[in-house]
Write a structure and sequence with these properties.
- By secondary structure, the chain is of the alpha+beta class.
- It has helices spanning about 10-35, 40-50, 70-80, 85-100, 105-115, 235-270, 280-310, 310-340, 355-365, 370-380; strands spanning about 120-125, 140-145, 150-160, 165-175, 180-190, 195-200, 210-220.
- The chain has a four-stranded antiparallel sheet, with no helix packed on it.
- The longest helix is centred in the middle third of the chain and has 36 residues, at about 235-270.
- The radius of gyration is 21 Å and the shape is globular.
């Protein structure tokens, strides 16, 4: 399970360095944090100190000057070590990217240095109870009141709101020319009056909690709006494409960790004369899982390179494909790993059982695999829509 040769020497060095960091924490650290109901603050702080959290953000605002290529490497390698940081998907990848591309100079000065050095976090709120995967049905609205904005609505399954200094909320404003609603993004500080949150009980073993948000006459100053009021979908997808790429990296890391545990076990577990890994019924499914992960990684790299090159259209297609491929590969790898270990695969000692649920998250969020297949059938193949 070596490093792909198509990567630059710099990227290979980054992978190696992050892998070393991840190995100092590992799955035991991650499991202990979850059991204690705590957060991965120690790992987050050290990753920040080493410059990994803001590797994709502009140098003039404290970042590393790289892109989603570099940030996805960081997340994948931490995941492969058994200690992924979900907030990497949200804070620097989605929110940091949107603010870096479309924020005002004041917003960049206010938020980017903190997102880069880990001292501040930002959550992202788009999903709604009645909208599902249809962003056109978002009902959170923002209306002008003098120079202020007033937001009303609900969000659901929003990660890390309790540890975030603010949430980047996707709302809809009325276009004065057409009367139609268009998406816009607003920075809502955590303690803003009218901004409420309640935890959602989840069957997931993760340090990051999920929340339902309520926005009840949330009043924001004019400078809470990110970017141009008329940019709409362009700004939104500037965050959604990195989200899909980073979700793919998250899934790849998880799949690699599970496969690594299974391979180690298959090499040493002896029931008959030879270790079980010598038997094709065990070896071939693991080989297939490895192939699937490597193929998904190639598509993830393609998507990240296209995004960093400024090809938003090409990145959109590749990001969706990468997220789909990585999620399927991760689910298969985790399932096969558990199967390889048999009863041991469900023990706390090996830490794979909890990953069965976690792996399915990549199939569901931030967009379901069925909606990705819809996207590919419509946008890539030109087939008619069913909705």
């Amino acid at each position: 399970m070596g490093t792909p040769t198509i990567e630059s020497e710099e990227h290979r060095a980054l992978r190696k360095a992050v892998a070393v960091l991840g190995s100092r924490y590992g799955r035991e650290y991650f499991t202990r944090v979850v059991a204690e109901g705590a957060h991965t603050d120690d790992l987050w702080a050290e990753a920040a100190r080493l410059g990994y959290l803001g590797v994709n953000l502009p140098e003039e605002h404290g970042g590393g000057g790289g892109g989603i290529v570099e940030l996805s490497i960081v997340l994948e390698e931490l995941g492969a070590a058994g200690c992924p940081l979900l907030m990497l998907v949200v804070s620097p990848a989605i929110c940091g990217t949107v603010i870096a591309r479309f924020g005002t100079e004041e917003q960049k000065r206010t938020w980017l240095p903190g997102l880069a050095d880990g001292s501040r976090k930002m959550a992202f709120g788009i999903t709604e109870p009645d909208a599902g995967s249809n962003s056109h049905r978002i009902t959170t609205t923002a209306r002008k009141d003098g120079t202020d904005w007033v937001l009303n609505g609900r969000k659901v399954f929003i990660s890390g709101v309790d540890i975030a200094d603010a949430t980047l909320i996707v709302g809809r404003t009325e276009d004065a020319r057409t009367g139609r609603l268009k998406p816009c993004l607003f920075i809502v500080p955590r303690d803003t009056p009218g901004f409420g949150r309640s935890p959602i009980a989840m069957e997931l073993s993760a340090p990051e909690k999920q929340f339902e948000l309520t926005l009840d006459e949330v009043r924001l100053p004019a400078d809470a709006l990110v970017g141009d009021e008329d940019a709409g979908l362009l700004q939104l997808f500037a965050g959604l494409n990195p989200e899909r790429i980073m979700t793919a990296a998250f899934a790849l890391g998880m799949g690699r960790y599970a496969l690594g545990r299974a391979v180690d076990y298959a090499r040493t577990r002896q029931v008959w004369k030879e270790p079980i890994g010598a038997h094709q019924a065990v070896a071939h499914p693991l080989a297939q899982a490895h192939i699937e992960l490597e193929l998904a990684r190639l598509m993830t790299q393609k998507a990240a390179h296209l995004y960093d090159a400024g090809d938003d259209l090409g990145a959109g297609e590749a990001a969706n494909m990468a997220k789909y491929a990585a999620a399927e590969a991760a689910v298969h790898a985790v399932d096969q790993a558990v199967h390889t270990l048999g009863g041991n695969g469900l023990t706390q000692e090996y830490g794979l059982g909890s990953m069965i649920t976690a792996a399915r998250v990549a199939r569901i969020a931030p967009v379901s695999r069925e909606m990705i297949l819809n996207f590919v059938s419509h946008q890539s193949l030109g087939l008619p829509k069913s909705y």
